[in-house]
Amino acid sequence: MVNTKIIKLTLTFFMIYSVKSSPPEDPIKCSYNTNFNCTITNSYGAFPDRAICKASQAIYPSTEEEVISIVANATREKRKMKIATRFSHSIPKLVCLDNDDQDRGLLISTKYLNKILRIDQEDMSITVESGVTLKQLISEAGKAGLVLPYAPYWWGLTIGGLIGTGAHGSSLWGMGSSVHDYIMRLRIVTPADASYNYAKVRILENGSSELNAVRVSLGVLGVVSQVTLKLERVFKRSITLSERDDSNLGEDASTFGRQHEFADFTWYPSQHKVIYRIDDRVSASTPGNALNDFFGFRSTPSLVLAILRTTVYFLGSLEEYQESTNDAGGKCSSAKLTTFTLKIGAYGLTNNGFTFTGYPVVGLHNRVQASGTCLDSLEDATITTCPWDHRVKGLFFHQTTFSISLSKVKGFIEDVKKLVVLEPRALCVLDLYNGILMRYVTTSNAYLGKQEDGLDFDITYYRSKDPMSPRLFEDIIEEVEQLAYFKYGALPHWGKNRNIAFIGAINKYKNVDKFLKVKQSYDQLGLFSSEWTNQVLGLKDGLTIVKEGCALEGLCVCSEDIHCAPKKGYFCRPGRIYKDARVCTCLSSR
């Protein structure tokens, strides 16, 4: 019998040390090498409801003038529009037209709105087109000795996309970790009436109330064409990743972010372990040339991904096999091996760009703040890809991401610990996907931004290719999700959730009426809106999709009125901890 631990360790080795990759394909596909009869997906190849989103035409402007012309023509003809980005990393259906609009609707891609327009050394700012990627911005600003102080950890986001969904890094310092709070100036093209030739460029400056609507817009206000962001002089950071048990995590969560500027946590609840990120600015003279090349964002051989996702006759406990055989013990063993391998590789950090020799790791901010080398190479016929590339049999997962107020976060953490005590093996699946990433966020002026200082929980977990197949310990994971949203009042990440996260969410934003007022002013005909965005914004009912097995995909919340067990042998019962929420999840009788 082949030793499965050795095989999995070998596979992990290949994942860690692969350096070439096929870049992700364009998420838009059209018929016969034209820009007509198109479909669009996200980078994972599936929206929460697995719908195929279509459009009559896709257009790729390369200048603001072309955007104006496109929006004007569509407005004159009353055609619906949606904005697409180069990599399409949002999980929800923000880019999808309604079924009734697919025969006439347009996709406006920002793929070629990708130019750095100006770097102002004196003003410490950068002006970019909205299709510029975070990687481009970090690289070009760094050449000028400037840095974006806080940013998401993944390079493959466009500036328009990340501000539109409220993407962020981790910090309670300065103006906080959300990129949209560093906008100084912004240009957006919106529909208009005939007196403006059906399109209008609105130029918004910091301090404008309308800018607070556009900072996080979900793409429903128009096409952001240019953004000017506030930068800082380049500085160095000192990083130590310290493994501790999770006994004090509830207490530490509310204070650790005040102690360290770039603090975060990676929590492995089934192992009772937490990685504390001790991360602060240091003097520019401090020796060190560190580099961050996070393992999860490196290219991976397609064969390795297929083996990790599936199984062959001699591999006893890989993911789909573990799911199909209810092999909870195998999942926990795999999780421990995964976290051990990440730990000995310092999670992709190196002291000099090549090797890890020990903590602290010291380097320039722009070399350690984000990564994504699987984006960074020539086409190799998908021999290697980003780990989640849907062209190969890669990773396929759900993401549930939410922020909870610092004043409530201890209670939530303690409730999750109770679930681990109740079923110690249930959350091993989270450890397989590198645990729960916990990042600090701050109150924002954006109308759809964070409402108070909090901690953002980013949870990634297995998703079956079969929408009717319950996951192993699905009940526990969904109880975590429902505790967050229905007991602790969590706010959803606009780009990373299933439908359940958005049920009633808009009522948690105190300035939503101001946002909707700007929306009505900018787009009176609702040409950039869809039924789905109207449901999320509370303008229309129907966010819950009631059908057989709907709770398995997070499309509905079971209740006394909704029986959504997928098949005989499965049933619905109330959550164990928050029993008065009158919600439950579909549970397996196994």
From TrEMBL:
Keywords: Ascorbate biosynthesis, Oxidoreductase, Signal. Pathway: Cofactor biosynthesis; L-ascorbate biosynthesis. One of its GO terms (cellular component) is membrane. Its EC number is 1.1.3.8. InterPro entries: ALO_C, FAD-bd_PCMH, FAD-bd_PCMH-like_sf, FAD-bd_PCMH_sub2, FAD-linked_Oxidoreductases_BP, GULLO2-like_C, GULO_Plant, Oxid_FAD_bind_N. GO terms for biological process: L-ascorbic acid biosynthetic process. Residues 1-21 form the signal peptide. It is an enzyme of class 1 (oxidoreductase). This is L-gulonolactone oxidase. Belongs to the oxygen-dependent FAD-linked oxidoreductase family. GO terms for molecular function: D-arabinono-1,4-lactone oxidase activity; FAD binding; L-gulonolactone oxidase activity. Its cofactor is FAD. Residues 51-234 form the FAD-binding PCMH-type domain. NCBIfam families: pln_FAD_oxido. SUPFAM superfamilies: FAD-binding/transporter-associated domain-like. It catalyses: L-gulono-1,4-lactone + O2 = L-ascorbate + H2O2 + H(+).
